Amino acid sequence: MIALVFLTCQFSEPSECVERELIFYDVTLMTCLTGAQPVLAQWAGEHPDWQIANWKCRMVQTAETDT
User: Fold this and answer.
1) Residues 49, 26: Cα–Cα separation, whole Å
2) Among 40, 47, 50, 56, which residue's Cβ finds the most Cβ atoms within 10 Å?
3) What local confidence, expressed as pLDDT, does residue 65 receive?
4) Helix, strand, or coil here: 62?
5) What are 14-24's pLDDT values in tens digits?
6) Secondary structure class of 48 (helix, strand, coil)
7) What secondary structure letter does DSSP report for 11?
8) Which residues of the chain have pLDDT under 50?
9) What proportions of the chain, in percent to the nearest 5, are helix, strand and coil?
10) What are the sequence ranges of the domains in the chain?
11) What are the C-alpha distances in Å from 23 to residues 10, 12, 13, 15, 48?
């Protein structure tokens, strides 16, 4: 599993930031890295009060999802 992890901050309150993640089950790390921008653009379009400050892709260990 791969997680697209991104930090979002409110436009009206830039110091209020939230880390979010989207989990992908059928992609590689490279696919996440090369395909993240359209996914993030869609998310940003659906959440106009938030801006994406940064993002990364990372492997998810199965123990992290079992809790």
Assistant:
1) 30
2) 50
3) 53
4) helix
5) 899 999 999 99
6) coil
7) S
8) 66-67
9) 35, 40, 25
10) 2-58
11) 22, 28, 27, 26, 22
> Looking at residue 62, what is its pLDDT?
72
Q: What is the CA 22 to chain-centroid distance, rounded?
A: 5
DSSP H/E element including 63:
helix 62-65
Contact 51, 17 (CB under 8 A): no
Q: Give the whole-angstrom CA distance, residue 52 versus residue 15.
A: 13
pLDDT at residue 19, as a whole number? 97
Cα 57 to Cα 1, 16, 36, distances in angstroms:
10, 22, 8
Structure tokens that stand for 18 in this block? 């939230």
Residues 43, 21 contacting (CB under 8 angstroms): no
pLDDT of residue 63: 64
